[in-house]
Amino acid sequence: MKEGHFPRSVQAPKAVVMIRPHHFVPNSETAEDNAFQQEAGHLDATEVARLAYAEVSRVAEALEAVGVRTHIFEDESRLTPDSVFPNNWFSTHPGGHVAIFPMFPVTRRRERRADVIEMLKRDYRVQEVVDYSGLEPDGLFLEGTGAMVLDHIDRVAYVVRSNRADPIILERFCSHFKYEPMVFDAHDARGVPVYHTNVLMCIATDFVLLGVDMMVDDARRRHILDRFEEPGRHVVPLSNAQVADFAGNAIELQGRNGRVLALSSRALNALRPDQGAVIEQSAELLPLDVPTIELAGGSVRCMLAGVHLSRR
Question: N or C: which end of the chain has fewer CB within 10 A?
Answer without folding.
Answer: C
